[in-house]
Amino acid sequence: MKKTFFLATFAPSFLFAQSFTGSISGTVKDSTGAVITKAAVLILNIDNNARTDVRTDESGAYSAPLLPPGRYTIEASAEGSE
């Protein structure tokens, strides 16, 4: 009976030990080095065209967690920028 209980509690933690996702994060700045807040950031998986849209925060930072493995391009744009 103890062996069955041990396997039942051990198996779930073993199954979730590896993660098959990653994340992309960064900071958007202009040519002078000033951070850009509320910029739209497009993260595009070039293998399957899946897109993730995020915005920068008050410090110009963005993060896109739980992305599947792949090759990505990143574009940022903000109102009033070229």
Brief summary of the model shown:
This protein has 82 residues and is of the alpha+beta class. The chain is 17% helix and 37% strand.
Give a verbal description of the structure.
The protein is 17% helix and 37% strand. It is built from 1 helix and 5 strands; from the N terminus they run H-E-E-E-E-E. It has one helix at 2-15; strands at 22-27, 40-45, 51-55, 61-67, 72-77. The strands form 2 sheets. The chain has a 3-stranded antiparallel sheet, with no helix packed on it. A two-stranded antiparallel sheet has the order 1-4. The longest helix is centred in the N-terminal third of the chain and has 14 residues, at 2-15. The protein is elongated, with a radius of gyration of 20 Å.
Descriptive terms for the model:
82 residues; alpha+beta; Immunoglobulin-like; two-stranded antiparallel ribbon; 5 strands; 17% helix; 37% strand; disordered N terminus
Please report which band the strand proportion falls in: under 5%, 5-15%, 15-25%, 25-35%, 35-45% or over 45%. 35-45%
C-alpha Rg (nearest Å): 20 Å
Q: Which descriptor suits the 3D outline?
A: elongated
| Number of E strands | 5
Supply the CATH class of the domain at 22-77: Mainly Beta
The average pLDDT is 83
What is the number of helical segments per DSSP (H or I, 4+ residues)?
1
What is the CATH topology assignment of the domain at 22-77? Immunoglobulin-like
